[in-house]
Amino acid sequence: MRCPPAFGAAALSLALVGAAPAIAQSVGIRNDDPFDVSSLPALDASPELDRPRFELVLLNEYPLPGPLPDQTPRRVGERLELGVRGGLARLDPLADGTPEIVADAAPDSGAASGGGTGPEPHRRYSSSDGRSVVAERRCRSGRSWCRDWRLKIAGVSPATPIAVDDRVCFGAADNRIYCVHASNGHRVFAVDVGARAMRPLTAISAQRPEDPSPIALILAILEPGTRLVGIDLREGREVSRVDLSDSQGYFIGQPLAWDNQTILTARQNYERASAALVVWRLVAKGPHPRGDATPVSPAPKPTPDPP
Question: 257: which residues sit within 8 A by CB, 6+ positions away?
């Protein structure tokens, strides 16, 4: 049974742009050439917010028994798994129906990883120390990892950075989401999103029906979990925002991109026994925006140092 929308008119408006080119081969590049990262200013919220091109609208909402664990929904084939009170919820998020609750079961957390590998399997990225982002490449032996570059950023999120095309993105406690070149760590943008970005980010390669080229977006849930923002990966703009009301609770984990039109989020009510899985649909609303970003005061500099 389809549940009535609980978010009312809350919708995520997204201005989207063409994806960046594929990542280049860059084994052995050191981050010590004379490039002034301070010349790249932070970018504030874009005025394109008043002219939405896409909306992430509420498609369905599945009630779940709370409280939910601090986990992101996990895809298993064509079904979704999510830990809930008393067991494990399984469902097809694109079909009407009631989630199956498997008592005393737990979701498989998957294999542990030392960092996100991104588009190139011989490179990986991590930020586990809370002070820096580290890029590593496969050593010549192929059996170990060698450091390629490192950026010092105070308060960087401990979540694994994500690599999309030729860029690496991560959040920080200074209310910014950063994006750097994957090959050398030089900053592309730092966008102020108004709250701490400490959770894992989600990339989605969306497509408009009239345009065969994929469009890259970054989705982030900000602390304390009541705000979801969308970032234009090419221009570094905050192009969308949803704020939950007190009656709607807060998001758990990170968004899950089910396909290039569907986003899933877990939501916990403040009444702990009540929760939900929310299904959003990305809907085209207008032409593809063009134009330059509007710079504001620079963010604190990510300071590179050679390995």
Answer: 202, 203, 204, 219, 263
Q: Say if residue 179's pLDDT is above 80.
A: yes
Query: What pTM does this model have?
Result: 0.72
**Angstrom distance (rounded) from CA 200 to CA 221:** 8
d(CA 122, CA 62): 40
| Closest by Cα among 9, 37, 14, 65 to 218 | 14
Q: How confident is the model at residue 45 (pLDDT cuts 50, 70, 90)?
A: very low
Alpha helices by DSSP H, listed for 162-290, are: none
Residues of 260-273 as b/e, b for ≥16 C-beta within 10 angstroms? ebbbbbbbbbeeee
How far does CA 95 lie from the centroid of its chain? 25
Sorted by sequence, the CB contacts under 8 Å of residue 208 that are 6+ apart come out as: 16, 54, 215, 284, 288
Question: Does the structure show a pLDDT above 80 at 303?
Answer: no
